[in-house]
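User: Let's play a game. I give you a shape written as tokens, and you guess the letters that built it. Ready? Here's round one.
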């Protein structure tokens, strides 16, 4: 799996480490950002939030769009 951003930069030899949770494209170590996220689960009629944070991978483009 090759990183989409590296292919756009004419570096097709990179290796993807994950898939962006927003756009679904492969991303490498240089272009990926790993963010903490709240994990919620059903708890009867309501939701319960875990005390431990989960994680998600986003590419730089989607991270910039989230911050805009």
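Assistant: Ready! My guess for every position:
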């Amino acid at each position: 799996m090759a990183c989409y951003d590296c292919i756009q930069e004419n570096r097709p030899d990179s290796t993807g480490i994950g898939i962006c949770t927003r756009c679904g494209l492969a991303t490498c170590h240089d272009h990926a950002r790993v963010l903490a996220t709240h994990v919620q689960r059903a708890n009867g009629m309501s939701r319960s939030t875990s005390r431990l944070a989960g994680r998600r991978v986003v590419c730089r483009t989607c991270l910039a769009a989230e911050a805009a």
